[in-house]
Amino acid sequence: MTRPHSHPFIPYTPPRLPIEDGLDHGRAFHRLLDERRSVRWFSPDPVPREAIELAVQAANTAPSGAHQQPWRFVATQNPELKRRIRAAAEEEERRFYHEREIPDWHAALARLETDADKEFLEVAPWLVIAFAQKQQDGKKTYYTNESVGIACGFFIAALHSMGLATLTHTPNPMTFLTDLLGREGERPYILFPIGYPADDCEVPDLHRKPLTEALTFADGLA
């Protein structure tokens, strides 16, 4: 069938897997991601630049509002820049933990045993900051937060597939990243420390929401 278009379109004919093969792929993908954990103890062992490039290439496959792809990933392994990012992040974190009256949020974080010390920002061999672009070439982007969030999810999955670990670090506010990295007009979205888990790495003993709580089939009208 040929449809009329006012803009360029191309055929899309991905291979259709047999049902059991497709389910096997889905099960394998779930097993892979079910092993993923956020990490705060990193090895300083080097991570090749190509791994960062591949993860961003994966992020670039994410859907986005009007296909505007309103993100920019900024990567650094410069020790001095990492030190300055850590210092600025810890300044904001000290305010969060010791000055801001948000008891419910503090209580929710208690089982993670986090604090204002962010040593991992210097130990992890790479820091990658995802920035959201509210405008491109002077024009507004649409569904920006949703689009960048999906891209970051793809980015995390790609890192995990290569045996790398990360953490979605979001000190609030994060405007210091805009200044330190010269990203005027872009909003810091997530700060990712990236590396291999340390040999003595530990993670909280947490359990993911079961499928029965995450999925509802709506089989009829309300």
From TrEMBL:
Keywords of the record: Flavoprotein, FMN, Oxidoreductase
Keyword Oxidoreductase attached: yes
Name of the featured protein: Nitroreductase family protein
InterPro entries on file: Nitroreductase, Nitroreductase-like, Nitroreductase/BluB
Lineage of producing organism: Bacteria, Bacillati, Actinomycetota, Actinomycetes, Pseudonocardiales
Domain Nitroreductase, residue spans: 34-196
CDD domains attached to this UniProt entry: iodotyrosine_dehalogenase (cd02144)
Pfam (any one): Nitroreductase
